[in-house]
Amino acid sequence: MKRSKSSRRWLDEHVNDPYVKQAQKDGLRSRASYKLIELDEKDRLIRPGMLIMDLGSAPGGWSQIAGRMVGDQGRVIATDILPMDSLENVDFIQGDFTDDKVFQQLLDMLDGRQPDLVISDIAPNISGVAVADQAAAMYLVELTLDMVRQVLKPGGNYVVKVFQGDGSDQFLKDMRTSFDKVMIRKPDASRSRSREVYMVGKGFKG
């Protein structure tokens, strides 16, 4: 099958991407791992012994890093509609976290505890229709914020990928109502032409 120009460009970029090569060398699941590493270096998000929830976790790039950083005394509870191979210090639930049954499984796994940090590198399947893709992406991040408001520990932190565009300014305003401080970050590992940024909420008001 003949590849489109844009998918050819993506493939070339991907093959020659220094972060892709580094991930293979470091035994990491994806180049996205370096985004979380950078965010943590800047905002001091993860400590040993923490309880972390990872929404939209497959293939496990963020869960892998978080699991290593929390250590044996901590735990990462990860969920995605796609399957994900097991990782150290990570419990995985496959399914849609907005589905009542999956939500209940997550609550059962929390067992009355509240995560110190909720992370999400979630993105919708891209249709190629810009307006529809942006709407789908914003809908997903809004769902992660709903989850955060239900489970996050007061004073806890939240990191979410947001595509800048229609709805992103409104989302930032909404996020600011629930956190003491909200920062916008663009890690070096994030491709410069991508509209993705990461919003980091610190000090959940509960």
UniProtKB/TrEMBL annotation:
Annotated InterPro entries: RNA_methyltr_RlmE, RNA_MeTrfase_FtsJ_dom, rRNA-MeTfrase_E, SAM-dependent_MTases_sf
Pfam families cross-referenced by the UniProt entry: FtsJ
Name of the coding gene: rlmE
Compartments where found: Cytoplasm
GO cellular component term of the entry, any: cytoplasm
GO molecular function: rRNA (uridine-2'-O-)-methyltransferase activity
List of catalytic residues: K161 (proton acceptor)
Role noted for this protein: Specifically methylates the uridine in position 2552 of 23S rRNA at the 2'-O position of the ribose in the fully assembled 50S ribosomal subunit.
The Ribosomal RNA methyltransferase FtsJ domain, residue ranges: 29-204
Annotated EC: 2.1.1.166
Reactions mediated catalytically: uridine(2552) in 23S rRNA + S-adenosyl-L-methionine = 2'-O-methyluridine(2552) in 23S rRNA + S-adenosyl-L-homocysteine + H(+)
Name this protein carries in UniProt: Ribosomal RNA large subunit methyltransferase E
Family: Belongs to the class I-like SAM-binding methyltransferase superfamily. RNA methyltransferase RlmE family.
Entry keywords, A to Z: Cytoplasm, Methyltransferase, rRNA processing, S-adenosyl-L-methionine, Transferase
Signal peptide per UniProt: none
Binding site for S-adenosyl-L-methionine: G60, W62, D80, D96, D121
Top EC category: transferase
